[in-house]
Amino acid sequence: MGKKILIPIILLISLLCTPSIICSQSFPDNLAGYADVTVSDEYNYDYSGYNAIDRQRQSDWAARGARNKWILLNWPYPINISFIKLINRQTGVFDPINSSELILSDGSIFYVGTIKTHGRKLININREGIFWVKYLIHSGVNNVGLSEILVIGADTK
Ligand SMILES: [Ca+2]
After folding, report:
1. Ligand 1 centre from 55 Cα, in Å?
2. CA-CA 20 to 30 A from 16: which of 10, 97, 142, 148?
3. Which 3 state secondary structure label does DSSP give 3?
4. How far is the CA of 58 from the centre of ligand 1 (A)?
């Protein structure tokens, strides 16, 4: 599709972008949806890695087990990240995360620690030029995973 066609379409989408029409306003500036997702494993087809970026709270990525499980988001271009919000599984009964961290492509590591069942955690990142983010769950209970990982962008300075 040429630029001449694409730009009017983008403008049209912007004009239509109200909460009642086509855009989800609950996840502003969430860049997770533009990433390729890979995971350590999936409990089964109903708990795919994609469920962690589909903007639906009631769909979970779940692994089979609770040790050394991970989700990796890859972008085809560098992004600037303000913060990352991790929402633990919503469909499970008891799947707390006991020990976890975020690893970024620039080598930085952010301690996340525990996220209780149905809980969430906000991690300040403030990093630029990031190509990938890996959330590594060292240990937890039952079948760990996430309902959503939100990667909130930052404006370029
Ligand atoms: Ca989801």
Report:
1. 5
2. 148
3. helix
4. 6
Identify the DSSP state of 124: E
- Residue length of the chain: 157
Could you give the CA distance from residue 89 to residue 97 in angstroms, rounded to a whole number? 10
> Quick one: tokens of 153?
């962008």
Amino acid, single-letter form, for residue 27? F
Angle at 63 between CA 59 and CA 68, to 5 degrees: 135
In a domain, 20, yes or no: no
Asked whether residue 72 is assigned to any structural domain, the reply reads yes
Give 48 Cα–ligand 1 centroid separation in angstroms: 10
pLDDT at 29: 85
What's the pLDDT tens digit per position in 109-125?
A: 999 999 999 999 999 99
Q: What is the CATH number of the domain that holds 129?
A: 2.60.120.260
Q: Extract the tokens encoding 98.
A: 């006991």
